[in-house]
UniProtKB/TrEMBL annotation:
It comes from Salinibacillus aidingensis. It catalyses: FMN + ATP + H(+) = FAD + diphosphate; riboflavin + ATP = FMN + ADP + H(+). The keyword ATP-binding applies. Coiled coil: none annotated. One of its GO terms (molecular function) is kinase activity. The gene is ribF_2. This is Riboflavin biosynthesis protein.
Length: 313
């Protein structure tokens, strides 16, 4: 998979072949997005073209809404690229969303970013818009294509009568409904980061944890305890994660931290990259009266999670 980072105006021609392109923001690369991308792959095979995806970064709200300084993503740029690669895409174009792009008229966008790149077939969702103030849509695209490429539009994709959308997934994650989010994503929700040295307090109470320093601006689940799977050093482990502020120890962190107690594991993993997949919410984070009460609850949590994953202790 080849990745191209573009910014308007595109100052040099790219060494790419004619392509079938899926276009959209694609945060989450959920089942609805996968249908759009799958249609582009199918068209590429039928028309003997390269398969391609065009996405945008940063989120348009960072540029268009001056009050928003950062956005937390379901799939930050690196995670999004991993998903595209998993889907077998040939080319990925990451277009920098800035003021110049926001002001570009729809016909000019089609000319600069689609026709000039060699797009021969375009696939997008029914609600895709483009150009200044989102004035372009899949109806206007027929005119703006100037006969240079054909179009496919993907209608709304639903699950249990609910539209699959990044917003719906965020809402479920914010409520700790990780199984519902998994149904819309087509995979568990994942956070990635490196294991860093923490307070070592877990070792003293018999529950040593891997303190995960997140690698990107992820959209975080509801604070609490979760059943998780953790990928580390090419192996997968079960565990329980605490996402929160550790109120029993009065840590007082400004942002929630992610700590994972990995079942049936020992070893030095500081500095290693870990992927944490969230499966189900166990309980709220709470403040305990003392260490023994905390240990008793952790043993109960571990038993619940082992039962959830059907693994023995």
């Amino acid at each position: 998979m080849e990745v191209f980072e573009l910014e308007y105006p595109i100052e040099k021609s790219l060494d790419v072949q004619d392509m079938a392109l899926a276009i959209g923001y694609f945060d989450g690369v959920h089942l609805g997005h996968q249908k759009v991308i799958g249609e582009a792959k199918k068209a590429a095979e039928e028309k003997h073209l390269k398969s391609a995806v065009m996405t945008f970064h940063p989120h348009p709200s960072v540029v268009l809404n001056k009050e928003i300084q950062e956005v937390h993503y379901l799939t930050p740029k690196r995670a999004k690229l991993e998903q595209f690669e998993n889907l077998g895409i040939d080319y990925v174009f990451i277009v920098k969303f800035n003021e110049s792009l926001a002001q570009l008229e729809p016909d000019k966008f089609a000319e600069e970013f689609l026709i000039k790149l060699g797009v021969k077939h375009l696939v997008a969702g029914f609600d895709f818009t483009y150009g200044h103030k989102g004035k372009g849509n899949m109806d206007t695209m027929k005119e703006h294509s100037k006969g240079e490429f054909t179009l496919s539009m993907i209608e709304k994709v639903s699950h249990n009568n609910e539209k699959i959308s990044s917003t719906a997934i965020r809402n479920k994650i914010a409520e700790g409904r990780m199984n519902d989010a998994r149904q819309l994503l087509g995979r568990p929700y994942r956070l990635k980061g490196r294991v860093k040295k923490g307070s070592q307090r877990g070792h003293t109470i018999g529950f040593p944890t891997a303190n995960i320093q997140l690698s990107d601006d992820y959209y975080l689940p509801k604070v609490g305890v979760y059943a998780v799977q953790l990928a580390l050093n090419g192996s997968t482990y079960y565990g329980m994660a605490n996402l929160g502020y550790k109120p029993t120890f009065k840590e007082g962190d400004a942002k929630p931290s992610l700590e994972v107690y990995i079942f049936d594991f020992s070893g030095n993993i500081y500095g290693k990259e870990a992927e944490v997949d969230f499966f189900t919410y166990i309980r709220e984070e709470q403040k305990f009266s003392g260490i023994e009460e905390l240990k008793s609850q952790l043993r109960h949590d571990e038993e619940m999670i082992r039962q959830f994953f059907a693994i023995s202790s």
